[in-house]
């Protein structure tokens, strides 16, 4: 039984094995498989989610597991119950694994030392979002066949982005060249990664745009949406300067017309909706790994 708290500590071989297993699940013709029959998985979201929450639920159901969906907004968290007590409560009821999203950093790692069932990080603060990065790697591998030597630009609000961090750790292990591009007040200087200008960032094989995370900004970090778009957005004009073989990615949800123009979201170079599709086999592989 194995938790997945982040990709920083995960071996390259383990990452490749999850990607390979996801490819196996994607190729299966039947929609539901009973490998996790009789297992109970709880999805515990202390922060909002659409993609991660529902693709975990689809993945769990496709593996035949029983699914419990916990939502902090309608739970005893509203009466002051702690995250630890919530997870411990579900463990005592007999869940076999837990998927957790939460805001504070460090809490998940601490809970994992006190809980016996495997825990999967569905995003914790700006620390890690391992399954998002795994589905991103899977999407890139499907496109290019090989991650070694691939040039990946991650553009936008890297300071607040757990997606940028998990992608950085994993892509570096697999031999890709990762660079960040961010406004001066949204950089991540504590990370060992080169920050480059937007014109340089557009030359990459993968142009990954990040959402401006207004809910994590204290005070007015951006002047206006239009000002951000002008300086750091992937506009139709900027996209014309990308290489013809390059792809556009974004973890979503998307601020259309801010970090990416509306016309580009489903353009031929975009892999944004395929990323969401790839999230299901990746999460099947991760849940199976936790419970097998
Ligand atoms: N990409 C992602 O984590 O989306 P959600 O917040 O909707 O889960």
TrEMBL record:
Catalyzes the condensation of carbamoyl phosphate and aspartate to form carbamoyl aspartate and inorganic phosphate, the committed step in the de novo pyrimidine nucleotide biosynthesis pathway. Its EC number is 2.1.3.2. The lineage of its organism: Bacteria, Bacillati, Bacillota, Bacilli, Bacillales. This is Aspartate carbamoyltransferase. NCBIfam families: asp_carb_tr, PRK00856.1. GO terms for biological process: 'de novo' pyrimidine nucleobase biosynthetic process; 'de novo' UMP biosynthetic process; amino acid metabolic process. The gene is pyrB. Residues 2-141 form the Aspartate/ornithine carbamoyltransferase carbamoyl-P binding domain. It comes from the Bacteria.
